[in-house]
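Protocol step 4 of 6: structure prediction from sequence.
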Amino acid sequence: MTLVTNYDISSLPTAAEIELSAESSRTLATYLDAGQTTQVLKVTDANGQEREVVIPATAMHLLVEILKHIAAGDAIALNPIHAELTTQEAANLLNVSRPYLIKLIEKGEISHRKVGKHRRVLYTDLMAYKQQSYRRQSAALDELAAQAQELNMGY
């Protein structure tokens, strides 16, 4: 197996890549099944030899998402997410500043641990905070919508 190392992931896809990605994403999406834990892909190499490759279903979902972005003409970059994040990585995932994240940590809204003088945040804790925050925002929006209805504001 050859590893392709000369592919520039920061370049925009060509028109041919966009068209192929659109078709591929639609085709692969029809095989996505929420109940499956693995997917089997049939791959043909340059010599015409076929081989079946078993991949996790999560990888198949990710592949479909990547193809959708390429089909939209976007450049793609993959960033692995570690189980434990630095405060800057955590802030980036929440799309907030690092000082704001530190305030959340100090208020106890996000769990952390210290490694020397540095804080580390578990990815699962960060996602739990994000979901909780989303639920609070949704509840506030629902309440505002209900008030608007009561006041006949026409929304």
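Step 5 (inspection) to follow. The first helix runs from residue 15 to 29.
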